[in-house]
Design brief:
Length: 217
């Protein structure tokens, strides 16, 4: 609700008790001070709590809007920083490989697996994939853990994270769901494949389908 609406509500707060009072009493101006004192007590006793409640709602709403704006700013900055992070990605095991060249090599290691040794292959190389996955989860947590966002807003912004990831990043994040419960939970709650095309050759279809089935179970 905008600030002007809260102001209007405060200005209109005396109207209802005023009309209610005169609907039950004769409309006339008393010359007795005690009558005016009683009327003032009535109006103050009724209008005061209403105005206080409206003010409290305004403060809560202002805090939530401020919290949401702060979270969005942090989210955008984190997502922008992640793009650079992925572009220069490396670990202690990466040797001369960096960035997407290194990520593509990691994916090739996973994609070269058979269905029988897939999980074993991911677990063996997860130390090299984990920093990337943790960074993605950290960005998502900025939105997911902020109570000022409703479920539809969370889904929208988390889908935006997916859309900003390169295909190889998205595939490695999907692969992490086989060995990381938190990745699986995020991907299950915020369907990564809905309306999102992960670029891949036909030979990798079985992998993506396996990830998708695992996430949904």
């Amino acid at each position: 609700m905008s600030s002007s609406k809260y102001l209007a509500a405060i200005l209109l707060a005396p109207v209802i008790p005023f009309l209610f009072y005169f609907s039950h009493h004769e409309v006339s101006f008393s010359e007795k001070q005690v009558d005016w004192g009683a009327f003032g007590s009535y109006m103050g006793g009724v209008v005061g709590p209403i105005v206080a409640a409206i003010t409290l709602l305004f403060l809560i709403d202002s805090y939530q809007r401020s919290s949401k704006q702060g979270a969005l700013q942090t989210f955008i900055q984190s997502l922008t920083a992640h793009v650079e992070y992925a572009t220069n990605y490396k670990t202690q095991y990466s040797s001369s490989y960096t960035g997407h060249k290194y990520l593509n090599w990691l994916w090739d290691v996973v994609a070269d697996s058979s269905e029988q040794n897939l999980i074993e292959r991911i677990e063996k190389n997860y130390g090299e994939i984990q920093p990337l996955v943790n960074n993605i989860k950290l960005i998502i947590s900025v939105i997911e853990q902020d109570s000022s966002f409703n479920d539809l807003e969370k889904k929208y912004y988390i889908q935006h994270v997916y859309s900003r990831l390169s295909s190889v990043e998205m595939k490695l994040f999907l692969a992490s769901s086989l060995v990381d419960a938190e990745s699986k939970r995020i991907l299950k709650n915020y369907d990564s494949l809905a309306g999102l095309v992960v670029s891949r050759p036909k030979t990798e279809d079985w992998l993506i389908n396996k990830f998708d089935i695992h996430i949904k179970t």
